[in-house]
Protein backbone atom coordinates (compact mmCIF):
# COMPACT_ATOMS: atom_id res chain seq x y z
CA UNK A 1 0.00 0.00 0.00
CA UNK A 2 1.31 3.44 -0.90
CA UNK A 3 0.66 6.55 1.12
CA UNK A 4 1.35 7.63 4.68
CA UNK A 5 -0.85 6.41 7.54
CA UNK A 6 -1.05 8.55 10.65
CA UNK A 7 -3.15 7.87 13.74
CA UNK A 8 -4.32 10.55 16.13
CA UNK A 9 -7.10 11.20 18.67
CA UNK A 10 -10.28 12.80 17.39
CA UNK A 11 -11.05 16.17 18.94
CA UNK A 12 -14.33 16.65 20.76
CA UNK A 13 -15.78 18.44 17.75
CA UNK A 14 -14.60 15.64 15.42
CA UNK A 15 -16.32 12.67 17.09
CA UNK A 16 -19.30 13.44 14.89
CA UNK A 17 -17.26 12.02 11.97
CA UNK A 18 -17.33 8.55 13.55
CA UNK A 19 -21.04 8.95 14.33
CA UNK A 20 -21.77 10.05 10.75
CA UNK A 21 -19.89 7.05 9.36
CA UNK A 22 -21.81 4.76 11.72
CA UNK A 23 -25.07 6.22 10.40
CA UNK A 24 -23.92 5.55 6.83
CA UNK A 25 -23.27 1.93 7.82
CA UNK A 26 -26.89 1.68 8.98
CA UNK A 27 -26.15 1.56 12.72
CA UNK A 28 -28.59 4.45 13.36
CA UNK A 29 -26.80 6.23 16.24
CA UNK A 30 -28.69 8.91 18.17
CA UNK A 31 -28.57 12.49 16.95
CA UNK A 32 -26.90 13.75 20.15
CA UNK A 33 -24.70 10.72 20.80
CA UNK A 34 -21.42 12.36 19.78
CA UNK A 35 -21.54 15.00 22.52
CA UNK A 36 -22.29 12.34 25.15
CA UNK A 37 -19.57 9.94 24.04
CA UNK A 38 -16.81 12.52 24.25
CA UNK A 39 -17.18 13.10 28.00
CA UNK A 40 -16.13 9.57 28.95
CA UNK A 41 -12.57 9.38 27.61
CA UNK A 42 -11.47 12.31 25.42
CA UNK A 43 -8.43 10.34 24.20
CA UNK A 44 -10.44 7.22 23.36
CA UNK A 45 -11.62 8.16 19.87
CA UNK A 46 -8.94 7.56 17.23
CA UNK A 47 -8.71 8.46 13.57
CA UNK A 48 -6.45 6.89 10.97
CA UNK A 49 -5.57 9.24 8.13
CA UNK A 50 -4.12 8.28 4.77
CA UNK A 51 -2.09 11.15 3.36
CA UNK A 52 -3.99 13.52 5.63
CA UNK A 53 -7.48 12.30 4.70
CA UNK A 54 -9.82 10.40 7.11
CA UNK A 55 -9.52 6.67 6.45
CA UNK A 56 -10.77 4.78 9.53
CA UNK A 57 -12.15 5.32 13.02
CA UNK A 58 -12.24 3.38 16.27
CA UNK A 59 -13.20 4.17 19.84
CA UNK A 60 -11.74 2.39 22.86
CA UNK A 61 -13.23 4.22 25.79
CA UNK A 62 -11.62 3.64 29.18
CA UNK A 63 -14.38 3.77 31.79
CA UNK A 64 -12.14 3.05 34.77
CA UNK A 65 -8.89 1.27 35.59
CA UNK A 66 -10.38 -2.16 34.77
CA UNK A 67 -12.83 -1.83 31.87
CA UNK A 68 -12.95 -0.31 28.38
CA UNK A 69 -15.44 -0.57 25.54
CA UNK A 70 -14.61 -0.72 21.84
CA UNK A 71 -16.82 0.71 19.10
CA UNK A 72 -16.96 2.76 15.90
CA UNK A 73 -14.49 0.41 14.19
CA UNK A 74 -15.08 1.59 10.64
CA UNK A 75 -12.80 1.74 7.62
CA UNK A 76 -13.84 3.95 4.74
CA UNK A 77 -15.37 1.59 2.15
CA UNK A 78 -12.96 2.51 -0.66
CA UNK A 79 -9.93 1.86 1.58
CA UNK A 80 -10.84 -1.53 3.03
CA UNK A 81 -8.47 -4.46 2.72
CA UNK A 82 -5.34 -2.28 2.76
CA UNK A 83 -4.24 -2.82 6.36
CA UNK A 84 -5.35 0.56 7.66
CA UNK A 85 -8.01 -0.90 9.95
CA UNK A 86 -5.54 -3.37 11.48
CA UNK A 87 -3.08 -0.62 12.38
CA UNK A 88 -5.87 1.40 13.96
CA UNK A 89 -7.20 -1.66 15.82
CA UNK A 90 -3.79 -2.19 17.40
CA UNK A 91 -3.59 1.46 18.42
CA UNK A 92 -7.05 1.30 19.96
CA UNK A 93 -6.30 -1.76 22.05
CA UNK A 94 -3.01 -0.22 23.12
CA UNK A 95 -5.02 2.69 24.53
CA UNK A 96 -6.95 0.20 26.69
CA UNK A 97 -3.73 -1.06 28.23
CA UNK A 98 -4.36 -4.00 30.56
CA UNK A 99 -8.09 -3.35 30.89
CA UNK A 100 -10.73 -5.89 30.00
CA UNK A 101 -12.50 -4.78 26.82
CA UNK A 102 -16.07 -5.23 25.62
CA UNK A 103 -17.57 -4.76 22.17
CA UNK A 104 -20.75 -5.30 20.18
CA UNK A 105 -19.77 -6.74 16.81
CA UNK A 106 -21.69 -8.03 13.84
CA UNK A 107 -21.79 -11.85 13.84
CA UNK A 108 -19.78 -12.01 10.61
CA UNK A 109 -16.78 -10.56 12.46
CA UNK A 110 -17.12 -12.79 15.52
CA UNK A 111 -14.42 -15.21 14.37
CA UNK A 112 -11.99 -12.35 13.72
CA UNK A 113 -12.62 -10.89 17.17
CA UNK A 114 -12.14 -14.34 18.71
CA UNK A 115 -8.68 -14.49 17.16
CA UNK A 116 -7.89 -11.32 19.11
CA UNK A 117 -8.90 -12.90 22.40
CA UNK A 118 -12.55 -11.87 22.56
CA UNK A 119 -15.10 -14.43 23.76
CA UNK A 120 -18.83 -14.41 23.02
CA UNK A 121 -20.94 -13.51 26.05
CA UNK A 122 -24.40 -13.26 24.45
CA UNK A 123 -26.29 -11.74 21.55
CA UNK A 124 -28.11 -8.43 21.43
CA UNK A 125 -31.12 -8.28 19.13
CA UNK A 126 -32.24 -5.00 17.59
CA UNK A 127 -36.01 -4.71 17.38
CA UNK A 128 -37.88 -1.97 15.52
CA UNK A 129 -41.46 -1.05 14.74
CA UNK A 130 -44.29 1.32 15.50
CA UNK A 131 -46.06 0.28 18.71
CA UNK A 132 -49.46 1.54 19.78
CA UNK A 133 -49.45 4.83 21.67
CA UNK A 134 -48.34 4.55 25.28
CA UNK A 135 -48.98 6.68 28.33
CA UNK A 136 -46.94 8.27 31.09
CA UNK A 137 -48.92 6.40 33.76
CA UNK A 138 -47.26 6.50 37.17
CA UNK A 139 -43.80 7.31 35.82
CA UNK A 140 -41.96 10.55 36.57
CA UNK A 141 -39.37 12.67 34.81
CA UNK A 142 -35.91 11.27 35.53
CA UNK A 143 -34.70 14.83 36.09
CA UNK A 144 -36.87 14.96 39.20
CA UNK A 145 -35.16 11.94 40.78
CA UNK A 146 -31.89 11.88 42.74
CA UNK A 147 -29.06 11.04 40.36
CA UNK A 148 -27.70 8.55 42.89
CA UNK A 149 -30.71 6.29 42.38
CA UNK A 150 -30.11 6.17 38.64
CA UNK A 151 -26.37 5.67 39.00
CA UNK A 152 -26.86 2.79 41.45
CA UNK A 153 -29.33 1.08 39.12
CA UNK A 154 -27.04 1.53 36.14
CA UNK A 155 -24.25 -0.07 38.15
CA UNK A 156 -26.26 -3.29 38.23
CA UNK A 157 -26.45 -3.59 34.44
CA UNK A 158 -23.10 -2.16 33.29
CA UNK A 159 -19.68 -3.50 34.30
CA UNK A 160 -18.07 -0.15 35.16
CA UNK A 161 -19.05 3.17 36.76
CA UNK A 162 -20.02 5.83 34.21
CA UNK A 163 -21.41 8.82 36.10
CA UNK A 164 -20.09 11.45 33.67
CA UNK A 165 -21.60 9.61 30.71
CA UNK A 166 -24.95 9.15 32.45
CA UNK A 167 -25.22 12.83 33.31
CA UNK A 168 -24.51 13.77 29.70
CA UNK A 169 -26.92 11.10 28.42
CA UNK A 170 -29.79 12.22 30.63
CA UNK A 171 -29.41 15.90 29.76
CA UNK A 172 -28.61 15.70 26.03
CA UNK A 173 -30.88 17.59 23.61
CA UNK A 174 -33.90 15.51 22.66
CA UNK A 175 -33.27 12.83 25.30
CA UNK A 176 -36.32 12.10 27.45
CA UNK A 177 -36.06 10.00 30.60
CA UNK A 178 -38.81 8.42 32.69
CA UNK A 179 -38.62 6.53 35.96
CA UNK A 180 -40.96 4.39 38.04
CA UNK A 181 -40.79 4.55 41.83
CA UNK A 182 -42.07 1.92 44.23
CA UNK A 183 -41.84 3.61 47.58
CA UNK A 184 -38.36 5.12 47.70
CA UNK A 185 -36.97 2.48 45.31
CA UNK A 186 -36.30 3.08 41.61
CA UNK A 187 -38.10 0.10 40.09
CA UNK A 188 -37.48 1.00 36.47
CA UNK A 189 -36.15 3.75 34.24
CA UNK A 190 -35.18 4.47 30.69
CA UNK A 191 -34.32 7.07 28.06
CA UNK A 192 -35.66 7.64 24.56
CA UNK A 193 -33.71 9.72 22.04
CA UNK A 194 -34.04 10.83 18.42
CA UNK A 195 -32.06 9.02 15.74
CA UNK A 196 -31.87 9.30 11.94
CA UNK A 197 -34.51 6.55 11.74
CA UNK A 198 -37.14 6.83 14.47
CA UNK A 199 -36.36 7.04 18.18
CA UNK A 200 -34.18 4.70 20.19
CA UNK A 201 -34.95 3.48 23.69
CA UNK A 202 -31.85 2.83 25.75
CA UNK A 203 -31.13 2.09 28.39
CA UNK A 204 -34.30 0.42 29.64
CA UNK A 205 -33.75 -1.00 33.12
CA UNK A 206 -36.32 -2.58 35.43
CA UNK A 207 -36.55 -4.90 38.40
CA UNK A 208 -39.35 -6.90 36.76
CA UNK A 209 -41.44 -7.13 33.61
CA UNK A 210 -44.29 -4.99 34.97
CA UNK A 211 -41.92 -2.11 35.71
CA UNK A 212 -40.30 -2.48 32.29
CA UNK A 213 -43.73 -2.38 30.66
CA UNK A 214 -44.70 0.82 32.48
CA UNK A 215 -41.48 2.62 31.57
CA UNK A 216 -41.57 1.39 27.97
CA UNK A 217 -45.11 2.70 27.53
CA UNK A 218 -44.11 6.06 29.01
CA UNK A 219 -41.14 6.34 26.66
CA UNK A 220 -43.27 5.31 23.73
CA UNK A 221 -45.71 8.10 24.61
CA UNK A 222 -42.84 10.59 24.79
CA UNK A 223 -41.70 9.51 21.32
CA UNK A 224 -45.01 10.46 19.71
CA UNK A 225 -45.80 8.55 16.53
CA UNK A 226 -42.20 7.84 15.51
CA UNK A 227 -40.91 4.31 15.00
CA UNK A 228 -39.18 2.77 18.01
CA UNK A 229 -35.83 0.96 18.11
CA UNK A 230 -34.95 -1.24 21.09
CA UNK A 231 -31.74 -3.27 21.47
CA UNK A 232 -32.51 -6.30 23.63
CA UNK A 233 -30.06 -8.69 25.34
CA UNK A 234 -31.11 -12.15 24.20
CA UNK A 235 -30.55 -13.82 27.62
CA UNK A 236 -33.47 -11.79 29.05
CA UNK A 237 -36.62 -13.60 27.85
CA UNK A 238 -38.90 -11.00 29.48
CA UNK A 239 -37.24 -8.28 27.41
CA UNK A 240 -37.73 -10.29 24.21
CA UNK A 241 -41.38 -10.82 25.15
CA UNK A 242 -41.87 -7.09 25.78
CA UNK A 243 -40.50 -6.19 22.35
CA UNK A 244 -42.66 -8.74 20.57
CA UNK A 245 -45.74 -7.84 22.62
CA UNK A 246 -45.48 -4.30 21.28
CA UNK A 247 -45.19 -5.39 17.68
CA UNK A 248 -41.46 -4.82 17.32
CA UNK A 249 -39.63 -7.13 14.92
CA UNK A 250 -35.93 -8.12 14.88
CA UNK A 251 -33.91 -6.27 12.24
CA UNK A 252 -30.35 -7.32 13.08
CA UNK A 253 -28.14 -8.52 15.90
CA UNK A 254 -24.73 -8.04 17.44
CA UNK A 255 -22.39 -10.29 19.36
CA UNK A 256 -21.50 -8.93 22.81
CA UNK A 257 -17.95 -10.10 23.35
CA UNK A 258 -15.37 -9.52 26.07
CA UNK A 259 -11.62 -9.86 26.27
CA UNK A 260 -10.66 -10.44 29.89
CA UNK A 261 -12.71 -10.82 33.04
CA UNK A 262 -15.70 -8.52 33.47
CA UNK A 263 -17.76 -7.74 36.56
CA UNK A 264 -21.03 -9.72 36.40
CA UNK A 265 -24.15 -7.73 35.56
CA UNK A 266 -27.87 -8.37 36.15
CA UNK A 267 -29.01 -9.06 32.58
CA UNK A 268 -32.45 -9.98 33.92
CA UNK A 269 -32.86 -6.27 34.72
CA UNK A 270 -31.61 -5.01 31.36
CA UNK A 271 -34.45 -4.63 28.85
CA UNK A 272 -32.71 -2.23 26.46
CA UNK A 273 -29.00 -1.67 25.80
CA UNK A 274 -27.80 1.92 26.09
CA UNK A 275 -25.60 1.96 23.00
CA UNK A 276 -23.86 -0.57 20.77
CA UNK A 277 -20.97 1.89 20.46
CA UNK A 278 -20.25 2.51 24.16
CA UNK A 279 -22.03 -0.40 25.82
UniProtKB/TrEMBL annotation:
A molecular function GO annotation: acyltransferase activity, transferring groups other than amino-acyl groups
Domain (N-acetyltransferase) ranges: 5-133
Domain of life, source organism: Bacteria
Protein name: N-acetyltransferase domain-containing protein
PANTHER family: SLL0310 PROTEIN
Record InterPro entries: Acyl/Acetyltrans_Enzymes, Acyl_CoA_acyltransferase, GNAT_dom, YitH/HolE_GNAT
